[in-house]
Prior knowledge:
Order of helices and strands of chain A: HHHEEEEEEEEEEEEHHEHE
Shape of chain B: globular
Structural class of chain B: mainly alpha
CATH topology of chain B: Arp2/3 complex 21 kDa subunit ARPC3
Largest interface: A-B, 67 and 62 residues
Oligomer: heterodimer
Helix content of chain A: 25-40%
Largest sheet of chain B: 2 strands, antiparallel
CATH superfamily of the domain at 48-63 and 128-278 in chain A: Rod shape-determining protein MreC, domain 1
Radius of gyration of chain B: 16 Å
Strand content of chain A: 15-25%
Number of helices of chain A: 6
Number of helices of chain B: 9
Amino acid sequence: MALKEGQFGELKVPLTWTAAVALIVAGIVAVALLVNDRRETLQNQAYGVTRQAVDTVAAPVSGAVAAPGRWTRSAVDWVGDYFFAVSENRKLKAELVEMRQWRDVALAQRDINERYRTLMGLRTDPPIPMVAARVISDSRGPYANTRLADAGRDKGVISGNPVMSEHGLIGRVVGVAGSISRVLLLTDTTSRTPVMIDRTNARSILTGDGGPNPRLEYLRGRDPVKEGDRIVTSGDGGVLPRGLPVGVAVKGMDGAWRVALFADSTPIDYVRILLFKDFGQLADQKGLSTTQLPTIDTEDPEARKVQTILGNVAPPSNAGTPPPAAVATTPPATPQSAPAAPRPPAPQPAAPATTPGTPQ
Amino acid sequence: MRRAAAGLNPVQWLAVPMLICIVAAILFAMPARAFGFQLPEPMWAIVPAFAWGVIRPSVLAPFALLVLGLFFDGFWGGPIGLWALALLIVYGVVIALRNILSGQAGLVTFAWYAGCTALAMGVGYVFMILGELGRPGPLSVFWQFLITVALYPAAHWLIERFEDQDVRFR
């Protein structure tokens, strides 16, 4: 008996149709979730409870999986250190000689900077506290370049905090759970980072595209960048501090300017999360939002009349009459008198000198 | 005949491949480098999305793919629903064309698999642009496409293992 003539031959069409219905329902759910996703924003609520739950569950599993890799790397490093100690020593000595010269230059520049700051009364950025974290998971696809770091809300990490490796900026925090945080890398397609070219101060937006070298977009001016220029964060927008090292400019195969990231030079296993707050967050919001206005300081109209119309005529004696109680008056003005404006405070020496944007 | 019809155990042909995909994704998300290169990151779930469609239509498979896609989106930190949608589209195309696909020679099936992988990547690419999330680099998309295509032997094995177990859909 042929199969299609059997009792199960009739089951084929209904099952296909129910499978199609199931496919449509699942597709609708996927589209609804996709449309409502706002992962790229800095809002805490956008990250969502679901993502936090996934990260919290994935953290111990990924941590356990990553441990053997970490041990292997340590063992390889140990063996490498043993066999290449002499050549490494020579290299370090040469670097030390060069660094000593740079140290003298840096000390001289620091001294000049401190004097300028004192003279100008500049308000410097406060030191930026930071927490160290270990990377336990790493995604590298074209649509997601993120990492999980094992420091979260319990260590004061919040969305938007910049994340650095030992060499430079790698991204920023986009999601935080109890003891875990999700770092959006500079290479992620949704990543946009305000940067500047250190040599020319030209501004640009570093735009990730899923590849290893993000693009420099919105460059202005004539020849604002050339091969090998150092790229640092500009601090525009207040999300990142100014001056964090990012990478060097390179010309891409597509002709666009791209950045070879400093953070790419070694494996990223440990990171520093800067607990950075921009000036907007540091300001005394309560003081700024107060509605109490200062007292009105007006001119005495009588005194003005005497001075402008009668010229040298002596002002009428009003010593016996008290000034109006509700209005705070100035003393009778004379043509030579200076306006009663408050003097600006004398420049104060800046409190502990810190390099803007430099983690302390 | 009854035994043949009920031959596909959902745990064997759905749950186990799902689990393997999840474990593989976790293993390959290890932050490790060898000789300066990172580990590749193929889209593991394309394998079951293609193979399940070829094996037979199923009510459970779309929901399994939805769960799998959401796991990858959450675990990799991408837009939630992106891979789920891409996998479901691949599954839908394979289901619609399974009469053409079944019984083909290995090379033809491989070509279809590569086409389905390209379709999934294309869905992600188009959504990223339409959603104004950014324009992924074609090179990075192509690289992930290549290493995902390299997983074809796994898809072939899955098809060979389960295709003949439910004779209603031969």
